[in-house]
Design a protein that fits this description.
By secondary structure, the protein is of the alpha/beta class. Helices cover 29% and strands 24% of the residues. The longest helix is centred in the C-terminal third of the chain and has 16 residues. The radius of gyration is 20 Å and the shape is globular.
Length: 315
């Protein structure tokens, strides 16, 4: 998870070309177009075939709407000048998709104070002109949340039984974090700097997990979804030392929802109703399990407050 307001990301997916059923052909109903991160497992992965939790969720939404699904694959660049909030607005405002999922539901991300113009992120089918031009932004509207993202503590397998009830239980241990992330900020500020002398900064999530596995660090504070992605690549045992997920979850959790243009309110309302029915039938958690995603139910309130300095010092 990148440190706010560049929040955590991802979107919805399916096949690279739209398909039409006979019923849709008769009705003239176009496919539902959803933007999806091209390489963000276990949420979405453009592959042959494409896969991920959001792929199944998007297919389910489209099926309930009686429409086929078309995915606009994109990449949210990881640099200081861009973030998912800007990328989502650019893609939706430019008509590249009607919906985008894995949108963080925070007061700041839904506040109607947008930059007047933004650049498009890299996306499938982009032309040189697309890479240069600016897009006029529009107001966005979101559905109810369907899952939450949180931070977790990962341990070497040999320490799987170590109790971690609070971050204070890691006092004296070398703690790996990905630099410039929310986990980094928490590790540095927790308990007014209680852990700061033992924090090891690493450039990316893969490096964090490798450091735990090799013994370079004793534990790591990571995005739970990043651990799911690592586990999906390596499995629980791979011959070079497994990792163990502790029971610790930081209290800061971020609800994720589907977002679209506020002017497309009818579609947002329809998707919101579909998500409500899926939640009522406990259908979302099994989708997550099939994709290898650790499911956390949404928190209250649906739209969370922005992260203040005090929250970084606590569990």
């Amino acid at each position: 998870m990148r440190f706010l307001p560049s929040a955590v990301l991802a979107c919805l997916a399916m096949l690279s070309e739209p398909a039409w059923s006979q019923d849709q052909a008769r009705s003239g109903e176009p496919p539902l177009t959803v933007c999806l991160q091209a390489n963000d497992p276990p949420l979405s992965l453009r592959g042959d075939p494409p896969s991920g939790f959001d792929l199944e969720l998007a297919r389910t939404i489209a099926r309930n709407l009686g429409r086929d699904l078309h995915v606009q694959w994109f990449i949210s660049r990881d640099d200081p000048d861009t973030n998912l909030v800007k990328d989502a607005n650019a893609l939706l405002s430019d008509g590249r998709c009607q919906l985008l999922a894995e949108y963080p539901l925070l007061e700041s991300t839904l506040r109607a104070h947008y930059a007047p113009t933004v650049k498009l992120p890299p996306f499938d089918g982009a032309t040189p002109d697309d890479r240069r031009r600016w897009v006029k932004t529009h107001e966005l509207a979101a559905t109810r949340p369907y899952r939450a993202d949180a931070l977790a503590v990962v341990l070497p397998a040999r320490d799987a039984d170590r109790p971690v009830r609070t971050l204070a239980d890691l006092d004296g241990l070398k703690i790996g974090v990905q630099i410039a992330t929310l986990a980094d900020a928490i590790a540095m500020h927790y308990g007014n700097g209680r852990l700061i002398e033992h924090v090891v900064h690493l450039p990316d999530a893969r490096g964090v997990f490798e450091a735990v596995r090799s013994g370079t660090v004793d534990a790591a504070l990571v995005d739970l979804r990043a651990f799911d992605a690592w586990r999906g690549r390596h499995g629980s045992q791979d011959g070079s030392g497994a990792l163990a997920l502790s029971s610790y979850r930081h209290s800061l959790a971020f609800n994720m929802g589907v977002v679209g243009l506020a002017s497309n309110s009818k579609l947002i309302e329809q998707v919101d109703a579909i998500l409500a029915e899926l939640q009522a039938n406990d259908a979302i958690a099994p989708m997550a399990a099939r994709a290898g995603l650790t499911f956390l139910p949404p928190r209250t309130p649906a739209v969370g407050p922005d992260v203040g300095p005090a929250a970084l010092t606590q569990d």
